[in-house]
Each structure stands twice: as C-alpha cells, then as structure tokens.
Design a protein that fits this description.
Blueprint: E1 2-7, E2 11-12, H1 22-32, E3 46-50, H2 60-67, E4 75-79, H3 85-98, E5 104-112, E6 118-119, E7 135-136, E8 141-142, E9 147-148, H4 149-159, H5 164-183, E10 194-196, E11 204-206, H6 218-222, E12 242-251, H7 253-259, E13 266-274, H8 283-295, E14 302-307, H9 313-322, H10 327-334, H11 343-346, H12 353-367, E15 372-379, E16 383-390
Parallel strand pairs: 3-4, 3-5, 14-15
Antiparallel strand pairs: 1-12, 2-12, 5-12, 6-7, 8-9, 10-11, 13-16, 15-16
Helix pairs in contact: 1-2, 3-12, 4-9, 8-9, 9-10
C-alpha cells in the first residue's frame, strides 16, 4: 500500500532552489511524508531515492537520510535509472515489503538540475597541448548513441506521424491543464512549502510550482526554434528543467491496518522494460501494455493515465501505440492522459518525477471516487517503467 506521498514544489531552472543541494530537498520530503502519521523515523527500514546527475557526491540517498535526521542505522539506496529512477525506487521498495525484507519503506527521488556541474574529463591526467573540452552534463544525452535525447525524440515522433504542431498543442494543453488544477487547489495535498535561502531578514517560502507558464500561447510556442538538431522538439514542447524532490511511504495492508492508517491506494503491479535505445517516445506505451498484461486488466479499465512529458512526443507517440495507430481510438485514450498537466508545465527534476506521477495519480483518483490508474515514464538509452495503482 502507498499510505502517503509528498513533494516539494518544483523550482524552475536557476530559480528559488538554485543554492539548495538535492539531498536537502530529499531530506525535507523524507520528514514531511511521515508527518501526522503514527510512524517514527527509526521504524523506517529503507529509504530508496532516485538521483541521476553528478555533482552531489557519493551515496546521495544516504546524505538525504542523515539530512532528514533519521537514525544513522537507516539504510539509504540511490537509484539511477535515468528519468525512471523514482518509479523504479517505488517498485524496489514494494518488492522489499513483498519478500518480507522490510516493513516500512520510503521511496521517491530528488534532483537539483540547477546545480549540475560542467565536467572536464581530460584534466585527470592533464592536457599538455590542444583544446580542453568542457562537457555540460545538463544536456540530457543518450550516452550509448552519444546523441541528445531531444534530437531522436523529435525524429521518432515525425516517423510515427506526430508533427511539430501536434507537439506544440500538447504543450499548450499541459500548461492550461496545470492552471485549471492549480486554481482548484488540486496540488495542495501533495505539496510541502520550502524555505528559500535569502540574505534578507524576511523569510520567504516556495509554495507552488515555479516553472508553469499558463499565459503561453500557440503563437509563442510555434515561434520557438528546434533544439539540438531536432526536427520538432523546442524548449516549449519539452519538459521544464527543474529542481525538486518526492517521497512516498510504503507498507503492507496488514501493517497499515495495524497502525490505523487509511492508505492512499494500492500498488497493483510494477514493471521495468527496455527496448531500442532510440525508441524512447514509444516505450511508455510498451511498458503500459506489460503491466496491463501482468495485472490481467485492460486499458479501458484505467480511469486515469499518466505518461511523463519528457517531451510532448512521449505521450503523443505512446498513446498512438496504445490506440493501435487509429486516430479516433487514440483521441479517446488521450482524454484520460495527464488530466492536470504534466512535466512540460510542472517541470521534470529527472530523479524525482516518477514518484510524482504515481503520487499525483493516487490523489486524483481519490478525488474522482476511486478506480484504477496507470503511470508510465521513459528513461534514457531505451528504458521505461510503468505501474498500476488502485484507489
């Protein structure tokens, strides 16, 4: 069972969290996910957190555990499965519980992309002659193909029949859906305020996501130039570079009942998959099909669907795949996808997003009276994760 979920607001690139290390954001949500529950820090058997980008030092999850003030005996495990990491953490945590290796697990992720360093690999052994290459680790590359993900995401989208206009329209939808949900207070249950470091005497707090641009228009989006040689991907129809952390608290149904806790919902099944390194836009759809088969459920039974908007290409291509490339069937599926916006608006701190999708799905299903929901996210080098939950 997933009994609670909390996240920081997601700060925009170079914004409010620019000076806050990832492990501090992670430590904050570790504390907050236990607040108001009959669970003590010392009872947590394992903390599993995603984090992908360099610059924070060894064992980031362990750093977050200590930052949160948990007992020094608390185990911390860091997961790097690219953007899938936080959802992978939930899947690993659930397996620890199902195999009786743990009773209480906190799983999620953290990433401060604003603090990602530049690297000079040649400097280890010196460079006597010639130019030094400074590599920007924030350019999200497929390391195996040595190619920015934006380039082939756009190429695959075009190959599968998704043009630039459709991607810009999805990006606009993301911002608009976020604005509607924000106005209705739909993110309130999951967000925890974060104090913003400041030299001023007055204390200030970030209480809402910092990246969304609800005033954007198709005209603004269509005026943007493609990036990294992509035919379609722009800064407007790609996920926002962001900073933040997410945590979920997992335990068995028996444990929740014993403690008198009403869970948010049940993790029905989880699966990681891998495929062609270039086919990232398609793979969330493939992962969704796998978890549906595992659970013996049909897509029609899923009240809600979350597909991470690493780029607009991902939900667009994956829903085409799920709709057997039938446009009418695909449009019916898309009505249930990312109903409150996605990472294009909210931002995508890559180590944290997978758990955000899962947590937000649970809160929204509860608002809608319960049911099944499926979550999927792609990761670099041809990876994807998916999970089904029930409220």
């Amino acid at each position: 069972m997933i009994v609670n979920g909390k996240r920081t607001p997601f700060g925009r690139f170079g914004g409010s969290f620019r000076e806050v290390p990832s492990f501090e954001l992670g430590g904050l949500v570790l504390r907050k996910v236990l607040e108001g529950l009959p669970v003590e820090k010392g009872e947590i058997d394992a903390v599993i957190l995603g984090l992908c980008l360099p610059g924070i030092g060894l064992s980031p999850a362990r750093q977050a555990v200590l930052s949160a003030g948990f007992p020094v005996e608390t185990n911390g495990l860091t997961i790097d499965r690219a953007c899938c990491s936080a959802l992978s953490a939930v899947g690993i945590g659930a397996n620890l519980i199902l195999t009786n290796q743990a009773s209480l697990v906190i799983a999620g992720g953290m990433e401060n992309m604003s603090r990602t360093p530049y690297l000079i690999h040649q400097m280890r052994w010196g460079a006597r002659l010639g130019d030094l290459i400074i590599r920007d680790e924030l350019v999200i590359r497929n390391a195996f193909l040595d190619m920015p993900m934006a380039k082939y995401a756009g190429e695959v989208a075009v190959e599968r029949g998704v043009d630039r206009k459709e991607q810009d329209e999805w990006a606009l939808r993301s911002h608009q859906r976020w604005a509607e949900a924000e106005e209705k207070g739909k993110f309130g249950e999951e967000l925890v305020p974060v104090e913003i470091p400041s030299q001023k005497k007055e204390r200030t707090w970030l209480t809402r996501d910092e990246h969304p641009r609800p005033d954007t228009t198709m005209e603004k989006l269509s005026a943007l130039q493609p990036v990294y040689g992509s035919p379609t991907v722009t800064a407007g129809n790609a996920s926002g570079i962001a900073d933040g952390a997410t945590a979920t608290l997992l335990m068995s149904r028996k444990e929740a009942t014993k403690r008198g806790i009403e869970p948010l919902g049940r993790l029905v099944t989880y699966a990681p998959i891998c495929g062609e390194p270039r086919e990232s836009p398609l793979l969330p759809g493939v992962a969704i099909k796998k978890v549906l088969d595992q659970a013996d459920l049909r897509l029609e039974e899923m009240k809600l669907i979350e597909i991470n908007e690493a780029f607009a290409a991902m939900p667009l291509v994956s829903t085409l795949f799920l709709g057997d490339f039938d446009r009418a069937k695909t449009e019916r599926i898309r009505e249930r996808v990312n109903v409150n916006g996605g990472a294009i608006a909210i931002g995508h701190p890559i180590g944290a997003t997978g758990a955000r999708l899962l947590m937000h799905m649970l809160y929204e299903l509860r608002r809608q009276g319960g049911g099944y929901g499926v979550v999927a996210i792609c990761g670099a080098i041809g990876q994807a994760d998916a999970a089904i939950v029930e409220v």
